[in-house]
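User: Fold this; tokens only.

Assistant: Input:
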Amino acid sequence: MPPYQKKLDRRDFLKVSLIAASSPALFSACESKEIRGLSRANPGVTPAQLKIVEFYSQAFILGPPPSKELLAFVVHLYTPEEAEVVQHLPLIYGRTARAISPKIKRPENEVEIILSRIADEKRAILAFGEPGKPRKYGLMPLVPGTMELVMMEGKNDDWHRRYGQLFEAVYETGYIKDVLKKRIPATRYIPVQETINAIPTALSTDRLTQMMEENKSFGLGTCQCRQAKAFSGHDCGLPRDTCLATGSLADFLISRNIMRRVDRSEALESKLKANAAGLATMSMNVEFREPNISCSCCGCCCVILRTISQFNTPGLIAPPHFIPKRDESKCLKCGLCQSKCPMGSHFLSEKGWAFRRERCIGCGVCASVCPARALAMEPVEHYHRPPANYFGLGLKMTPGYLYYLLS
């Protein structure tokens, strides 16, 4: 079997998780002196909370370096009692309360109560488990992972509003500029439905309807990025009920009451409404038959789009399959392409129209809103279709990860 067709199984997750969790010095984006500096400047912070700061700052998971902003985020997310437990969790693949109990010298049932509260109420950690067996718990990267899972349920209370504000403070440090020196093609953007239906060269993986046809389970949740931005004082007013999961990922999120189950027609309708509002449709960069998550993004709030629109990095987005081509004779110079493009790819001035190709994600919003049909989406030469599965995606992302780790 060719390596790109291999499935990433639980054993693979375990190996990666154990290495990352047991060897933070190997992957950490920081030096211990930074942690010591935070400790001296914040005497009320516990060693466990500082250890969690170090976990989130690992280069292996593209974390931000230790900072007062990251520390404030962790202190809000985990109380000293919770941090005492959470510091012993590995990445993704979990540990049971029984395994952690002797490490902190507390009864197993007390540890289980704390872990369940963090997983089921705060949504800050993952929880796995089959009926009748002890649950396992694991940590996630800051992004993508912790930030999204906490916000996806759409709660609007004091704790969640403060959480969104503190995350934004971490993101606004601009750490992503140091992380993304090379493109890491974790996601891809699906062209707007009406701009792609008439293109003969479009693949099934370019078509939004194909995502629906390849799956039977659908879950719908709140856009975490627009929620966090709104809590931080910027509400763009665009729809938030647009985060869609498919397949077994949808089943998992629905079982945790993080998303609500919808049928195929409602799932497609939510995406078409998002497209009509000028939002760009994104999915993980794999074939649609794999469990997937699909966001509908704006350039002012989305943490993935902002890697390009705000911080001018290579980003976490795969190269587009289609880019717009302009017919000068039809262009009305109305400026809609400039105002609606989530990436700021189009620019109109007294000198005329300019197109920043390096910013274009191929979403097709510009072509769909152009009243004169002066813009049309055309295929990019030498395009590579998405990997068949998540193992293949990992292989495509590796060069970008290695560049950051080794530099």
